[in-house]
Each structure stands twice: as structure tokens, then as C-alpha cells.
User: Fold these one by one.
Assistant:
Number 1:
Amino acid sequence: MALNSALMNERRTFLQALLATALTSGVTSEAAGLPHAADASQAGGSRPLQRQPLSAPFTGMDAAFAEVHVQPGVQGRAHQHSGFVLGYVIEGEYLFAINDESPRVVHAGEMFYEPPGATHSTSASANGQPVKLLAIVIGPQGAPIVTTSER
């Protein structure tokens, strides 16, 4: 149990450092080529934070950071991304699945991963409460973050 707690603290520290980098680098979502979005916390949806080019050995790739709000009773549309996704649940309990697998609950303080080419098939609140998460898409520089949307 102590090892699991230590790993969780390391993940949390890593993601907090990534978020701090995104928020303090001075690159706005508009300057990073991300569309402007309404306040995600009120309407649900995502709020692009930043798009950061990566250096070697990841030259030609970037990290796109977005704050995502999932409102109770709203099921997200199935979609794919231009690269892999690292997600961190900040608040709430997130119902998550890829490729039509059985959904699982990701609690606040936990992470999820979507491999390249996966279809994010389930995205919802697991307990009827709002969910806030940080999504980081690592993919080809300048590529659209969402490449397909289904259903």
C-alpha cells in the first residue's frame, strides 16, 4: 500500500509540474493555435490551456494541455486524438473507457491513459457530480487535437 501511495504522489507531483509549466510559460491558448472556448466550468466541455512544442528526442511533437469539465448526466461523444493522452482527474469520479471496453471509475488523484489511435468511447460522471480533469495530448506538432468524433 505504501508503494502505491508513493507512486500516486510521484504522479501527482509530475502532473502538477506539467500544469504549472503550462500556466506559467506565457503561451495563451490563442497563441498556441488552440480555439477559444467558453468557460468550461459552467457549460461543460474543455478549455484549452496551452500547446507546447517538445524538444529532442520528441522534436516535431507538442503537448496540448486542456482542462476538461464533465457535467452530470452528459455522456461525451466517442472520439480519437492525434496522439496519446495522459489524463489526471482533479475533482470527482470519472467514468472512462476506450475502444468500447468496460468502463472504469477514475477517482480524483488518479490518472488514465489513451494510446495513439484509441477511441475514447466512454466519458461521463460516475456519481452524478461534476468532474474536472487535466488532459494532455502528446502528438504531431500542430495537428488537430481531436481527429475524429463519432456517434
Number 2:
Amino acid sequence: MAISDIAASLDALNGFKERNAHHPRAADVVRETLRDAILDSQLTPGTWLREEELARYFGVSRTPVREALQILRSEGLIEAAPNQGARVAALTTDDVLALYLVREVLDGLAARLATTRMSAAQWERIDALLEEMEEAAAVEDVERVADLNLQFHRTIRQAANNTYLNRFMEQVEHGVQRFSDTIFTYPGRGTDAVREHREICDAMRSGDSARAERLAIEHAQRARQLKLKMLIEGY
């Protein structure tokens, strides 16, 4: 549904609402529920998000709904429509490429900082993720590869231990999650990504932060180039 009323999507929100019921503030419950639903494509681009309907669904006043929508708007997940409220934002080809360009720089910085900050537990986590990702790529389990890839990069950014970097990377991650098709559907990309991940980790383990940064940037550049190729070819 290109443009729809959220009332038609309320049933799809139930699971996300339950998942986020633990948040202490109503605005947080609303924000996280809507964000999860958007990133999971349960709320598709063009879906209307009207304050009154959302307030009724969540059983809250319009104030926490308004706060949640304002934050989601700042993250680029929704857009304001004059005199009509808000709706889930669409991602254009320019948006896709812009996200990847920003991601290159942030991934490089994260790898450089994490080189000297990775804990033993985080290295253990990285090694386990790489093993699982290699196994998933071998059997072409695309969804599993994509999820493990996300966890790999998330672990590195957490190891970088920079609050602002983590915040910016989370926003980029949210944008990337909205892409309709993962680049791991492209033949061989999963296997190539594991190899590139291992090269980045080898540089980090050797303490070569500059090389780790360069390899992380090149890794993100390959992802951008492949995404563009897929868009052009209609893959």
C-alpha cells in the first residue's frame, strides 16, 4: 500500500508494541514500536501516521505521540505532509547512495578507534559472528548473513566507545535496514564480505589502526558500488 491509513496496519504493530512495552515512558514505547515496524517494512513508505489514531491505539495522549513522531522525523524515517500529518518516508536512489557515503567514513572511524579498544569478550564475539556468517554464506542463507553482518558492524562500533559516533552510526544503520533488498542477495557477496571482515580484523589485531580504517572504508565502498549496480540492473 503506497499511501494508506495506519488503521489498516495496527494489527501488524501488536508484536512490536509488546516488544517495547518495557520502556518506562509512553513516548519511548510509541517511538520504538513505530521505528521497529518501519525498519521491518511492516509500515511501508507512504503509510499515514496520524496523531489521534496512534494515541488511541497506544492508549496515551497525543503529547507522547507527537514527541515520538518528532524524533522519527529527525531520523529521516517519517516526513511531514502539510495539513495532513506525517507519513513513512520513502527512500530514493539518492538517499541510498548518500547513506552509503556517510557509512564509509563512519565505518572507517569505528574500525580505527576499536583497534585499541576491543575487549577480549568483544573479540570472542567477533570471531563467533564470522564463523556463523561464513557458514550462512556457504548455504546462501541471505537473511542470516545480513543479520550477522549487522551484528558484526554493531560490535565494532560499540567497541569504538564513542557516544556520538555510535549515535550517528545507529541512524545510518536504521536507514540501511530500510532498503528493500540486501546486497547479500547478489551471488558471492556473502563470501566476499566474510573475507573483507577478516582482513579488517587482522589489521585491528596487529594494531594497525590506519590500515583497519582504510580496509573498512574500502569494504563500505564495495557495498555502495554493488548496491548501485543492483539498482541499475534492477536486480
Number 3:
Amino acid sequence: MKTINYSLYVLALLLISTAAYSQPNFGLRNGVAVTNFDIKGALPDFDHGTLSYTAGAFVDLPISKLLFIQPEVNYVRKGRSQETTELNTNVETDYLIHYLQVPVLLQCRDDEMQNGHGYIFYLNAGPYAAFTLADQTKPTLVSMPNESKKTDWGATFGLGVQTPIFGEDIRFDLRYDMGLSKIANQPDDYRTQAISLTVGIVL
């Protein structure tokens, strides 16, 4: 609970510090993510990955013509598919953790340098905190021990494009999430990984 309160306090400071510069923009995003648990520092490998729906909300807080702070609140399920042998049969078991993920991204873009079609390209990077909502295994759907209910800290890197479609500002966003925290009920050197593709709308 202290971790959640601290994160909300940081977000409040960001909102106050940037409000005087310009009007913030709010938006919604949803899409899909391919996730995995893998060795810390390893390149993304999704041979045993799982597919997840992801969705959330964001706010753009301009701090200059080129830089924006973008806090978000997103839902994503991260997990790993693992083949085990039981009673001389191969059983594929999914280990899944549902997260409420709160990234605070630094976005680099220039709204004044649009090409003739109105495209705006941008880069994102920043830390995130992901709070466990629930965890489970499939196909048995048995809840994992309470020790897995913890916070995952990590970093997000991505790029995207914003373009007007039918009068609305639409964003297409590609990201990679790199977890930095240990995962309970998994090997000590495993961390979360996720690649997501989302579509968002600026309200």
C-alpha cells in the first residue's frame, strides 16, 4: 500500500509541475501483448510466451516543444507457457500474472514538424511499477501462493506514430517492457518481458 501511495504522490507532483506550461491531453489505448518470463538480461525470446489483451489510459504533459511526460495506467497479463511431463503425457501449463501497470514515460516528439499528411512520430522511454491483481495457472486455474503477489519494477522502451483519422488523433504504439524484479514461483534469474502493439485515441 505504501508503494501505491508513493507512486500516486509522484504522479500528482508531475501533474502540478507541468500544468502551468500547457493544456494536457488525455487518451485511451488498447491492443495485444506477447509476454514471457525469461533470464534477466536476455534478448526477447517468446518461444514459451503467452498472448494478452492490454488496455489503459494516458495523459500527455508537455514540458517543452520536444519533450512530454506521459503517465499511464494500464492492464496487462504477463506469463509463461511451459511444457511438463505428467503421467507419461506432455502437459502445457501457463503461469499467468495479471498486473495494473503504471509507467511514467518521457516522450520525444515535435508537434510542429508534421509532414504533409499530418503524421507525428515519437519515442517513449521510462520506468514502470506493476502491481499484481491476480495470478493463476492454466489449465488447472489453481491460484498460485500468496508470495507471488508483489510489485514488478521495470523499464519501457517504444516508438509510435500519431495521425488524424476521421477527425480524431489516433496513435499506433509499439513497446517493449523489461522487468527488473524477481518473479515468485519462478527461477530466481527470471524476469518479465512483454512486447505490445496498441491503438490509442487522444480525447
